UniProtKB/TrEMBL annotation:
Record Pfam families: HTH_1 (PF00126), LysR_substrate (PF03466)
UniProt-recorded name of the protein: LysR family transcriptional regulator
Record field: transmembrane: none
InterPro entries with a match to the protein in the record: LysR_HTH_N, LysR_subst-bd, WH-like_DNA-bd_sf, WH_DNA-bd_sf
HTH lysR-type domain mapped to chain residues: 3-60
Domain of life: Bacteria
Keywords from the named record: DNA-binding, Transcription, Transcription regulation
Organism of this sequence: Trinickia terrae
Family: Belongs to the LysR transcriptional regulatory family.
GO MF terms held by the record: DNA binding; DNA-binding transcription factor activity
KW Glycoprotein (keyword) present: no
Amino acid sequence: MAMELRHLRYFVAVTEHGSISQAARGVHIAQPALTKQIRDLEEELGLTLFERRSRGIQLTPAGQQFLTDATRILNEVALAKERARRVSNGQIGSLSIAITVLHALLPIFSQIMRAFRKSVPGVSISLRQLLSGPQLEEIRSGRLDAGFLFFRPAGDEALTGFTIHREPLALAVPRDSDWAAKPPERLRELCEADFLWFPRKASPDYHDQLIHCFRKAGFTPRVTQEGEDNSALLSLVAAGLGCTILPATASINAPESVVFLEVKDLDIKLPLDLVWRSDNSSPALQRFVEVVQACVSKDQ
C-alpha cells in the first residue's frame, strides 16, 4: 500500500476523536473500513501507532511523533492549496511593470497604483522606468509583464493592450527667448528657429507622425542639434540652444528656464497604452488589467 493523504487524515481523525467508531462517524466512512485504513497505514510504516484499550485507544511514542508530522503535513497541504487558489485568482504573486519616464507622475497612473494595491495587496509590483522602444523589447522577451508606453505596434498579434491616456504636445522654448515673449501661433513661424530634434530610430512612429504634422502645417524644421530622448531635448532647451516639441507632461519636471507653449496646428495627441503579451496568462496580470480598465473608465 502506498501512503496517501487520506491515510494521514484518517489517522489524525482517530486521535482527535479518541476512538475509531467516533472517528468513522466524523469522516463519514464505515468503522470496518476505517479500521482497515489504520491497519494498512501501520503495516506501511512497520510501526504500531495505537495501543488498543477497553476505553479507547492511546498513541504509542511512535504514534505521537507521527501525529506531529502528519498534522504539519496536512496543514502545509492546506496552505499550499490556498496559495494555489489565490495565485489562480490573481490574489498573490508578482508583476514586473514599466512606464515611460515622463508619465510616472500622471494622476491616472497614481490612481491605478493605489487602486491595485487596495484591491490586490498580495501581488507585489516591480516598477521600472523605460522608454517605449526598450519596453516593447522587454515585454516581447518576457522580462516585463506589461508596460505603459507610446505607440503599441499596429497589427502585431503578439501584443495586446488599450489606451489609458492621450498626451497633448507642446512647444518647449527657453524662457528668455523671443518665442517666450511672443509665442508663435502656427508651426510655420518656427522655420528659421534653431530646432532641437531626435533621431528617427529612437521612436520611428512618433518621428513619422510629427513629420506628417509638420508637412501639413508647412513647417520644415531647421535642425541644429539632436537629443536621444525627451530628457535630453529638455536639457538642451534649458541651456538656451533652441526649441523643440515635447509631450506636455514634460512640463511637470521642467526647469524654470523652459516655457511650454500651445501651438494651434500642433494637434497630435500621443496614445499612452498599457501593453502586454497576448499569450501572457498570468492571473495577477489579468487582475492588474482589470484594475487599469476600471480606473480609465472612471477617469473618462
